[in-house]
Amino acid sequence: MPKISIVIPAYNVGSYLQECLDSVRNQTFSDIEAIVVDDASTDDVAQIAEAAATQDPRIRVIANNPNMGTHRTRMAGAEAATGEYTFFLDGDDALKPDMCEQLVQELSQHPVDILHYGLTVIGANDLLQSEQEAFEAFNNTEIPDSSGEDIVRDIFDESRGYKVDWRVTQRLYKTSILKQAFAAMTKDRLGRSQDGYECFVVSAFAKTYHSCKHCRGYVYYYGRGISGTNTISAKKYAKYCEHFKADFDASYEFADAQHSDMLRSCAQGFQRKATEILANDWAVRIPEDEKAEALESMQEVFGPAITGREIYRFVRDKAYALLSADQLIAPDDTLPNWFAMANAITVPADQISEDSIRFHEMKQVATHHMTELTEKTRNTETFQKYNEQRIRLFVTTHKNVDTFDSAIIQPVQVGLREGSYRFPWAFHDDDGENISDLNPRYCELTTQYWAWKNINADYYGFCHYRRYFDFSDTPHKENPYGEIMDDYIDAKAAKEYGLDDTNIERVVRQYDIITTPFGDLTEIIDEHGTPRALWEAAPLLHDDDLLRCYRILCKMYPDYKEDADAFFKGNKACFCNMFIMKKEIFFDYCSWMFPILEEFDRNTDYSTYSKEALRTPGHLSERLLNIYLMHHKRIGSNWKFKELQCVHFTNPEPAKELEPLDVFDKPIIPVVFAADDNYVSQLTTTVYSAMKNADSSYFYDVVVLQRNVAWDKQERLRDFFKQFPNMSLRFTNVERELSGYDLSTNNAHISIETYYRFLIQKLLPFYDKVLYLDSDIVINGDIAKLYNTDLQGKLLGAIRDIDFLANLNVKHGKRMEYAKNVLKMKNPYDYFQAGVLVLNTKAMRERYTIKQWLTYASNPAFIYNDQDVLNAHCEGEVLYLPWEWNVVHDCGGRVGNLFVQAPNDIYDAYMRSRNNPQIIHYAGFQKPWTDPDCDFASIYWRYARETPFYERLLKRVVKATAPKAPVIVTPANPPRAVGEDNPIRKIIDPIMPIGSRRRELLKSIGRTARGRR
Q1: Which of 362, 388, 414 is the last residue of a domain?
Q2: Strand 391-397 relative to strand 208-212: parallel, antiparallel, unpaired?
Q3: pLDDT tens digits for range 236-255
Q4: Domain that holds residue 680
Q5: C-alpha span between 380 and 222 (Å, rounded)
Q6: What proportions of the chain, in percent to the nearest 5, are helix, strand and coil?
Q7: Which of 239, 352, 382, 699 has the fewest CB atoms in 10 Å of its CB?
Q8: pLDDT tens digits along 467-518
Q9: b or e along 935-965 (b: 16 or more beta carbons within 10 Å of the residue's beta carbon)?
Q10: CB–CB of 707/732 below 8 Å?
Q11: Spatial separation of the C-alpha atoms in residues 682 and 676, rounded to whole Å
């Protein structure tokens, strides 16, 4: 029996086999055998092997017929081996002469089951030098000895960092172990990652392991065969994917056959690492125009989660590398395209698995790096455009705000302190020569000083993050302070006020100086009359400061005294420190103004000043600007002046978009509510009831759509709901989304918040399905069950509205006529109640836009605007849910007086649902917080008393039930507007009882309609 058997699988390696066999025959250690397994080669492998065997009896040849693949070929060689130890030598590699001698010497000192040696790597086929060096360094790293399960875990256990490679040809095996392992392996044909599988099985049987990486007698030609970085097609890559999948499946089968959780975990580790290697081929070897096709193949084999994670890994690594090197995305960089391909891969957030969790985590990191890099690239390009401008209109800001799409309008961040976040999209007033540290006193003047000292331009202009010039030719209405008031900084505003570069340049280049209007102080800003009187009326400014500044001015520039006197005694002034000046004028102005303020600053003790009083230099500069301009008008400087209106934007902050949650270990259920500041108490009760009964195996993303919920109340709710670790609570302001729409309701008990549900599909674009709930409900059931309803492709799931359906059967037929003629419903009995909805937001986005929904909702002909809109446009696309999920309470006795008129089956179903209500809906004018004796009120208060707003709800009860002022009863009652026998009475009386405020409101509306008061 020889000491060492060398198994040489050979398929179409005739060009290299002679070198391989010569290296075997020339070994300095002679007690060896070589087994060449010809895998049905179509070249001259058989002839070369047979010739070598004829020359050296230590060489044997085995022939496969037909071709069996490398795995089965190795298996045949292992079965035929007779040596005490065996190793594999690829037919296109070779050995150094003392290879076997070194191995035997190492075995004499370390007699182990597996001896792991090193490599001498030679690059082939234009292999990248960097890849060759990295490959050699990794495979020649010394590894500590191990035994037992540590042998396989060091190779395949992800938690250990894959610190050992799995190259089958880089190990010498005890032949008995090798035979045992191959006997346990699959007999199926395997593919490219077969080394990993074979190493996995052999390592599982081995008991001892030793590394001798200093033995580098194996000469590995990296780049021959299928290794290396040569280009492959998308079709070939698809085959690779199938090969890898077969290897993974075989590994799991072996682990399961051994009944070992450890081995199954290692099989999973093998799959993950091997998938990375496979994905690396996608990145390096596939042409860009075939990458999308290859990616599709990978998804078909491994699914979107595994595939998407690998592409996001490349995005993460490439983006991070660019950020670390302080580089930008080059125009020809493939990174944006790879990011787009990764983003096109969808893994639903509610499908939780280990692979989906890893996908979302990698996506989050990659997206963060990519967003930062993209923003950095965009900002750099923007600043290049800024610096090319000869007209510079600087906008002073200390907060994150919206800006116009303009290269002339340029933001400057002020108020920076050590550790402050520096807006990447803005200039900074602490760069270059500056007085940034004076910003608490000098305000926007720190921007002016920075521009004066650091910027070269033809024109210098200054605005504020809220206030801009109106460059349009259209006069706009002003408020009593001389300002145009608007809401948002957006494309609409840019068009309205001419805030585009072409128009701005057209206007600016006609003049030397542009300011805000010189307003008449006898008419604006509370009509104080003069600039001096206006200053003295400011409660937080010191009158002595104005006088001292005046004296400093007169001393430093005596020729300006006349202009200062005229200004302070006159009644005209421009404000806001907004102006645009030609360069020479701006430089002259700064050289004149800043010394005055420096002198004032030097002689002022600010130690007792209030925060507003500290800003005195900023206030003084507004007055100094007026004096400077009046002086040059008086002395005939012949400057061309222009006054432009000032636009004040009340909401300059950017809309804060909701983002996906960083929760991947539980399925997420998005739940949306709508509320205003007055409804916070009720909202709290509703959400609390939901969470008390919610399945804890889910995570609930609770989003509240609102416009005016006070911050302190938001914080109080967030603190209260911390008791539920499987919940997040987020508030988002929807005012901007509703801007421009005429939204009102035709029902006194329906608020504007009812329209918010139309915004859900846009505000939460990362969810394909959302649960919407009104805030006048309590939830006894598990909303996870409601959310998990299979909508079967419908637009939404809802519960029929028994109130509406009962009205359809009222004799006068008006509701039926309304449903058919106004709502255009084919079957009015399908009308649903919109307080509880399971929304297929993906389908809704594909079908309707927000603009369409809100335009539909603006129809004044609707009774229940939002609900009617949904019914009119979703008919036939609704899945009707069990009645128990929206049990409307008995408001004003309508169950016995109105609901009984509903179709019999519907009425019976509703009545049964009252015995087990999963959601109770207090729809109508009667609420538990206005009438504690109303239907189902006790259930409401059971939840309410456990919330932090319980006392507020009690206060509402007290207010609603307080005794009314005595009513003077007249001897005779006037005839009723609606007679006793009128069928309308059957509807009105239960809902609006005689004597109720609701009834009186209806009567007053009727009198108004008839022209009576």
Answers
A1: 388
A2: unpaired
A3: 999 999 999 999 999 999 99
A4: 668-883
A5: 42
A6: 50, 15, 35
A7: 239
A8: 999 999 999 999 888 899 999 999 999 999 999 999 999 999 999 999 999 9
A9: bbbebbbebbeebebbebbbebbeeeeeeee
A10: no
A11: 10
